[in-house]
Automatic annotation (TrEMBL), chain A:
Its EC number is 1.6.5.11. It holds the Pfam family Proton_antipo_M. Its main location: membrane. Residues 136-424 form the NADH:quinone oxidoreductase/Mrp antiporter transmembrane domain. Gene3D superfamilies: 1.20.5.2700. This is NADH-quinone oxidoreductase subunit 12. Keywords: Membrane, Oxidoreductase, Transmembrane, Transmembrane helix. Residues 69-120 form the NADH-Ubiquinone oxidoreductase (complex I) chain 5 N-terminal domain. It comes from Moorella mulderi DSM 14980. One of its GO terms (molecular function) is NADH dehydrogenase activity. It is an enzyme of class 1 (oxidoreductase). It is found in: Endomembrane system; Membrane. Belongs to the CPA3 antiporters (TC 2.A.63) subunit A family.
From TrEMBL, chain B:
It comes from Moorella mulderi DSM 14980. The lineage of its organism: Bacteria, Bacillati, Bacillota, Clostridia, Neomoorellales. InterPro entries: NADH_Q_OxRdtase_chainM/4 (IPR010227), NADH_UbQ_OxRdtase (IPR003918), ND/Mrp_TM (IPR001750). Its EC number is 1.6.5.-. The keyword Membrane applies. It is a multi-pass membrane protein. This is NAD(P)H-quinone oxidoreductase chain 4 1. It is found in: Endomembrane system; Membrane.
Length: 624, 509
């Protein structure tokens, strides 16, 4: 099966043109093609994972094969290559599974949308690119697909292109990611300049012995800019909340479970580069930790259900990045996996609500539990998993991160992480109490979604409960002996950490219940009392405004100045030369007076001057 | 092979031109079909030559020689190598699609197609000539019809633009001519016999002072055409004024004549001169890239956006030339091809919109994707190519240029600057390009439906020919770049060998 792993991205890649050119008109057939393709990929991914187990493929002994793609003899060799190790195998499974469920869900959700077929073609293109990214065996290829998933994200954010806000959000996402990709590209250029290869394995062998750590640190820092953009870390996070303009299944698949996690995946792939550079690791850890806290605080003050989830995604990605930074790739990848399941579930649940109500403001919802039992109960399971209550999936993976931070001596980050856990539980249950409980609001009546939508919810709910067990201390640390860097190592179960994070999560839920679980005017009083803080949070610390100001004033201002310069200064000079020629011609033509006396005078003067000049040697000193 | 395939590629438009002369003016459709058939023959032959070209062997192939003026060593000698073959293919694709983009032309159709075919004959001639005299002759053949095509069939300040373009190009070519004559005389003196053959002239040892002087002339002469900043202003004005097919040829192919001349004649004959002036090119091309892209961002006319984007993208070609190594030169030639296809696509689409809407002002549009989904999709793909999206031809080209210049370890201005820093500045262009291209896409095609444009018909029928052919080309070479780079590299290898054999000299700064 591993031998044919290259087919995994090929199935959806083939579905893309088939839908565009052949089945576009027959909507359900388009969906069927897309789903069949991703289902085939999923089956293959399961097969690959099984073989990875059976054949004993490990992180040290991956399977790699490649075909040449572009070569310039002696200088450049770029391969279209496949690298399969446990890391890739796990990621393949997560991506294909979530993609499959989201596509099934979309049949119900997108029902009746005029762009139904295009939607499935884009999802197929996305799946193909994402799977290509996961399988890539070198930096070039990962960048190639990295850009393509970015394209799909752009297309799908702007899917409702008749809305200005959607078109703007797509543009913002692409450009912000471009800034990050600029850094990423420079990073692997530096690596190529140092080692002459893009291949992960060759680099992994060469990097540890490399002496010039200054250059290495520069390269690592630049490569890290890529994940900052893709995984929406501070300060390039601004695109992700706006990306919620896309259809909700897209938010679930691309902007929660898979693509945004690609940044974390890249960190795992490139871990050898970072592991030897403590300074850069610290940077990674703090960027992640800061983002986790920063976005959790914003989530507390948002009213839009998708935006709350978006900030939550940023925050959880921050956790994963922090895990990488404190040196635990295992914990980061573990959380990536569990998060993919419960966050996809949260988004799909939100989609189910939006599908029923066509409303996204949680304060205009209420009492939804009574009308949408499946959606509400699966949503609550996912929220409990996210909040990190045992024994749900999120508990184990988040705990692994906190324990790693604690054990590796990053006490500050550990405290920060625990604080984030509190905030997470709080903002999630604020959402739940407001939207799903309390009284129904006038005019909005929920109804349960069709089976194509609820079945994926149920499957994901099961996964949100059980996915964590693969990594529990009681399952002999299955995950950490599978996906790791260097030596397989796992953190000893730290019961104090576990207990504390559970208590903190319960405290968050409790506070949410106190403030929002029953009729209360405390939230408003708090908002009034701490108006400045509240405004700051509602406005997301004004980062968007700052960037917009920079773009409008600095970039566009400079561009206008250049434009003026080009039109007036540069063009002025060249047109000036033209004018000079024309004007001097006009003036010079007056020399041609047509007056014989004038000509005679000029000729006579000239003759005299020439005669004097020629006679100079004879006349000697008279003239000189 | 005895069939003179290159001459046939060049003469197919001439035959078409002669036939059109015989067709009565009112038979517009017959004229158009004749032009389409003639350029289709060129295209098929060019594809055939491209496929038959043996890049394992490399060097110049499909040679043909006819003695013309023995006393001056002027021969009609043609041949292509890995560098010129893609250019011939590019020209064939662009003119073929250009004819279809002009299908709705109604004004003096007969003369229009005659001049268009004359223009393309000149362009083919330049790319296949091995003889410097013919090279220059064809070069001029290409410039003159341009003046008439813009002056008569153009829009927006067409007389001004036509005159401006012609003056810039003629002044430029005067510099190149001085350089060519000087080379010829120097060569004749050294070799003992007169020749215009580029390969023979390349064997002459030119002394350093001469190289510096002549390369500078070539830099000005061909640089105007590229266009190198600050000699670029003819190009946005010219693009905007020109009718669709001429814009396509102009930005798609004519600019490449400059870069091609700079490599084929400038760098190949005078590698030391090139090394001396390379730092200047490297600095100026950054201005092209960044300044051009930023100006494109604030343009209000669709054609001006693309005009300035060409200035910006051709800056990458110049960077490839300035870095003077295998990767960068491969990238430069690939970028010439990729940019040619991409920009032809843009102009075909803008022409399509302009013809129906009679305006190109971005602010008046919005939501055009509702009425013209195919045009919108084509424009988006062009935009993605332009911003260097993987999977499309331009990405490979830009990537090679960046790799080449980035890995060149040479510092300038006593260490204040280096190729690496300049490369980083050039790479920042990918961010600016993404910004302006996608902003234009958004402002033109996305947003709510505007009913005032409901009468616009989407591209259909023959209008789809340029879109399909050009998009397919971008995707083909984007996904399978070795089809292109293996060939280009066979042409670049001897050039780089010559550069490396040349004396190492310090640059101008």
């Amino acid at each position: 099966m591993i031998k044919y792993a290259w087919l995994i991205p090929v199935f959806p890649a083939v579905a893309f043109p088939i839908i565009i050119f052949l089945t576009r008109k027959v909507r359900l057939l388009s969906a069927l093609v897309a789903i069949a393709a991703i289902a085939a990929s999923f089956v293959m991914a399961v097969g690959v994972l099984r073989e990875v187990f059976l054949l004993g493929v490990t992180m040290e002994k991956p399977v790699e094969y490649a075909a040449p793609w572009l070569q310039i003899p002696g200088l450049l060799k770029i391969e279209a290559g496949i690298l399969i190790d446990p890391l890739a195998a796990v990621m393949l499974l997560v991506v294909t599974l979530v993609a499959l469920l989201v596509e099934i869900y979309s049949v119900g959700y997108m029902h009746g949308d005029p762009g139904f077929s295009s939607f499935f073609s884009y999802l197929s293109l996305f799946s193909a690119s994402m799977l290509g990214l996961v399988l890539a065996n070198n930096y070039f290829m990962i960048f190639f697909f990295w850009e393509l998933v970015g394209l799909c994200s752009y297309l799908l954010i702007g899917f409702y292109y008749h809305k200005h806000s959607a078109a703007r959000a797509g543009l913002k996402a692409f450009v912000t990611n471009r800034v990050a990709d600029f850094g990423f590209m420079l990073g692997f250029f530096f690596l190529f300049a140092m080692f002459g290869t893009f291949n992960f394995r060759e680099l992994a062998e060469a990097i540890p012995g490399y002496q010039n750590t200054g250059f290495l640190a520069l390269a690592a820092a630049l490569v890290f800019i890529g994940p900052i953009g893709k995984s929406a870390q501070f300060p390039l996070h601004v695109w992700l909340p706006d990306a919620m303009e896309g259809p909700t299944p897209v938010s679930a698949l691309i902007h929660a479970a898979t693509m945004v996690a690609a940044g974390v995946y890249l960190l795992a792939r490139a871990f050898v580069l970072f592991a030897s550079l403590p300074g850069i690791m610290l940077l990674v850890a703090y960027v992640g930790g800061f983002t986790a806290l920063f976005s959790a605080t914003i989530a507390v003050a948002q009213r839009d259900i998708k935006r709350i989830l978006a900030y939550s995604t940023m925050s959880q990605l921050g956790y994963m990045v922090m895990a990488m930074g404190v040196g635990s790739m295992t914990a980061g990848m573990f959380h990536l996996m569990t998060h993919a399941f419960f966050k996809a579930l949260l988004f799909l649940g939100a989609g189910s609500v939006i599908h029923a109500l066509e409303e996204q403001d949680i304060f205009r919802m209420g009492g939804l539990y009574k009308d949408m039992k499946v959606t509400a109960s699966t949503f609550i399971i996912a929220a409990l998993a996210l909040a990190g209550l045992p024994p749900l999936a999120g508990f184990w993976s988040k705990d692994e991160i906190l324990a790693a931070a604690f054990d590796h001596g990053f006490t500050g980050l550990y405290i920060l992480g625990t604080l984030v856990a509190f905030l997470t539980a709080f903002y999630m249950f604020r959402l739940i109490f407001v939207a799903f409980f309390g009284n129904r609001r006038a005019g909005l009546h929920g109804h349960e979604s069709p089976l194509t939508m609820t079945i994926p919810l149920l499957i994901l709910a099961v996964l949100s409960v059980v996915a964590g067990f693969v990594g529990t201390p009681f399952a002999s640390h299955g995950f950490s002996t599978f996906v790791y860097y260097g030596e397989p190592h796992h953190v000893e179960p730290n019961y104090a950490v576990m207990l504390l994070s559970t208590l903190v999560a319960l405290a968050g839920i409790g506070l949410a219940w106190l403030l929002y679980g029953r009729p209360s005017d405390v939230p408003e009083k708090l908002a009034t009392r701490y108006r400045s803080i509240y405004t700051l949070l509602v406005n997301k610390f004004y980062i968007d405004e700052i960037y917009m100001w920079l773009f409008r004033r600095v970039v566009l201002g400079l561009s206008e100045a250049f434009n003026w310069h080009d039109r007036h200064v540069v063009d002025g000079i060249f047109d000036g030369v033209g004018d000079l020629t024309r004007i001097s011609g006009q003036k010079l033509r007056f020399l041609q007076t047509g007056n014989l006396q004038t000509y005679a005078l000029v000729i006579f003067t000239a003759v005299v001057i020439i005669a004097l000049w020629m006679a100079a040697p004879v006349l000697g000193g008279v003239i000189q | 092979m005895n069939f003179p395939i290159l001459t046939a590629i060049m003469l197919a438009p001439v035959v078409g031109l002669l036939l059109i002369l015989l067709i009565p003016e009112r038979e517009e459709l017959t004229i158009k079909i004749t032009a389409a058939v003639a350029t289709f023959v060129s295209l098929v032959l060019a594809i055939l030559a491209y496929v038959l070209f043996d890049h394992g062997r490399g060097g110049l192939q499909f040679l043909q020689d006819i003695t013309w003026v023995p006393a001056f060593g002027i021969n009609y000698s043609v041949g292509v190598d890995g560098m010129s073959m893609p250019m011939v293919l590019l020209t064939a694709i662009v003119i073929f699609t250009g004819v279809f983009a002009s299908w709705d032309m109604t004004k003096r159709v007969k003369e229009f197609f005659i001049f268009l075919l004359m223009l393309v004959t000149g362009v083919f001639g330049v790319f296949i000539s091995r003889d410097l005299f013919f090279f220059y002759l064809f070069f001029e053949v290409a410039v003159i019809p341009m003046y008439l095509l813009i002056g008569i069939w153009g829009s927006t300040r067409k007389e001004y633009a036509a005159m401006k373009l012609t003056l810039y190009l003629l002044v430029g070519s005067a510099f190149a001519l001085i350089g060519i004559i000087a080379t010829f005389l120097y060569g004749a003196q050294q070799l003992g016999h007169a020749t215009f053959d580029i390969q023979t002239l390349a064997t002459v040892k030119y002394d350093l002072g001469f190289q510096k002087f002549v390369f500078f002339l070539m830099l000005i002469g061909f640089g105007v055409l590229v266009p190198i900043w600050p000699l670029h202003l003819w190009s946005p004005d010219g693009h905007v004024a020109a009718p669709t097919a001429v814009s396509m040829l102009h930005a798609g192919v004519l600019m490449k004549l400059g870069a091609y001349g700079l490599i084929r004649v400038g760098v190949f004959l005078f590698p030391e001169g090139a090394k001396y002036w390379a730092p200047l090119i490297a600095v100026l091309c950054i201005v092209n890239v960044v300044y051009g892209a930023m100006i494109a961002m604030v343009q209000k006319d669709l054609k001006f956006v693309i005009g300035y984007s060409s200035v910006s993208h051709m800056g990458y070609v110049l960077l490839g030339i300035a870095a003077l190594n295998t990767l960068s030169l491969n990238g430069a030639v690939a970028q010439m091809f990729a940019h040619g296809i991409m920009t032809a696509l843009f102009f075909a689409l803008v022409g399509n919109v302009y013809h129906k809407a009679h305006t190109r002002e971005i602010a008046r549009f919005g939501g055009l994707a509702h009425q013209m989904p195919r045009v919108a999709a084509g424009f988006l793909i062009g935009g993605l190519a332009s911003l260097g999206l993987p999977g499309l031809n331009n990405f490979v080209a830009e990537f090679l240029i960046f790799m080449g210049s980035f890995t060149r370890e040479q510092s300038l201005l006593g260490g204040l600057l280096s190729y690496r820093i300049l490369s980083i500045m050039a790479i920042s262009g990918i961010v600016i390009t993404a910004t302006y291209v996608l902003r234009v896409v958004k402002n033109t095609f996305f947003g709510p439906r505007k009913t005032e444009w409901d009468h616009l018909e989407d591209a259909h029928g023959v209008e789809m020919v340029p879109i399909v052919v050009l998009v397919a080309t971008l995707i083909l070479f984007g996904l399978l770049p070795s089809l292109q780079i293996d060939m280009i590299n066979s042409g670049i290898a001897p050039l780089v060998a010559k550069i490396e054999a040349a004396k190492a000299i310090g640059g101008i700064f």
